Amino acid sequence: MAQIARRFLVHGRVQGVGFRWHTCRDATRTGVSGDVRNLPDGGVEAHAEDDVESLAQLEQAISAGAGGARVVHVDVEPAAVTGIYDSFQVTPYMDLKQHIRSVPDFPKPGILFYDITTLLRIPGGFEAAIDRLSAPYVDKGIDLVVGIESRGFILGGPVAERINAGFVPIRKPGKLPARSVRESYNLEYGTDALEIHADAVERGQRVLIVDDVLATGGTAQAAALLIKNLGGELHGLAFLIELLALDGKAKLPGEKLFSVLQY
């Protein structure tokens, strides 16, 4: 049977009662591969890969709970088949914020810069970031992921691969070789512009924009305008980090936004 993947988000009294170990046992018995981990909100997340029948059996076991667990609700979402698991395992939850470095007065005085390179260099850190960025967009019919120069390239390419979409770069002026279109914007420490190839997006294609940070929203707004001006259908914008105090959402009214971390 064909392999599929599912993400299970389990809510209730499921931490500190052996729930992860019971889930691992049940998955192993049915031959399901993947992993299970605790979440900081008190829930449990499991990623499972196998055929439809085996995953249905695992869902029943998860919903029933085990030992002293009390399962209130289970959210089941489609996920990408990674093929990286050869068994089912219990995985410690990674606190992404713990591994992101804050750099004051960069690139200009008064700016607090969140450096994600300290997260990406940790084994499992890059994978965890991509897992959480891509999860809401699996099987959503997205044609293209657009990454904004430059950290949007680091994140956007793997997200595109994970959700089976194409990838298109948006670059700073003068970096693209063929005919391009440009959109200028303001950002928290000056002004800049973005460009995209004029033939990068076909009319009606469903597009997801990916970048590392949503700050004042100027960069994201310019990218959204570029996509729409080419006739693309903007499905949403996904960010690893959102700086809430800067209210970047205000420049993107009506758009579907997702951020993994908020500061």
What does it look like?
It is a single chain. This protein is of the alpha/beta class and about 260 residues long. The chain contains 6 helices and 14 strands. It folds into 2 domains: about 5-90, Alpha-Beta Plaits (2-Layer Sandwich); about 95-260, Rossmann fold (3-Layer(aba) Sandwich), CATH 3.40.50.2020. The chain has helices at about 20-30, 50-65, 115-120, 125-135, 150-160, 220-230; strands at about 5-15, 35-40, 45-50, 70-80, 90, 100-105, 110-115, 145-150, 165-170, 180-185, 190-195, 205-215, 235-240, 255-260. The strands form 4 sheets. Strands 4-1-3-2-5 form a 5-stranded mixed beta sheet, with helices on one face. It has a 5-stranded parallel beta sheet with strand order 9-8-12-13-14, sandwiched between helices. Helix 4 crosses helix 5. The radius of gyration is 20 Å and the shape is globular.
Could you give a quick summary of the protein structure above?
This protein has 263 residues and is of the alpha/beta class. 24% of the residues lie in helices and 36% in strands.
